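All the exercises in this workshop are built on plain-text protein records. An example says more than a description, so a record of this kind follows:
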Amino acid sequence: MWNNPTVTGAEKRVGGWLSGFRTFILRGNVVDLAVGIVIGAAFTTVVNGFVGNVITPLIPIPGGSISTWKWPVPYNHSAFLNVGAFINAIISFLIVAFVIYFFVVRPVNALMARFKPEEVEAPPATRDCPYCLSSIPLMATRCAYCTSPLPPPNQTPAPAQQTPAAPRT
């Protein structure tokens, strides 16, 4: 058994595989995602309790509160549509979405915008021919469309230098 080539060195092969898995699991975004899911589930439970026990009993309808509102099904008199539970779920979803947007999404977007590196504009790769206004490569010496000779691209008029004015006499 100890001389079996399948078993010999298995710990090294498994260790490499497990270290890759460990690296994946301990990467920051996976741990953050797991924490976010657990906190989100707990927060959703709190919001569902708040909506079901505080908000919907305050909404009056004839015959009770909205949390106990049921509609009978026309073709089956023993079944009911629990409209109150559906409205509770809608209100809970809107509260959770509101909180996540204003307390998570907007602050993270502002943080990302603050620390995002400034984008450097790349120099243009083309220029326009001064004669036919076609787009041509930047380093072209002749226009491919009208065959006009073109000045070099880095030939720009130099700024006028100021000469000191002669003193008035």
Observations:
- The radius of gyration is 36 Å.
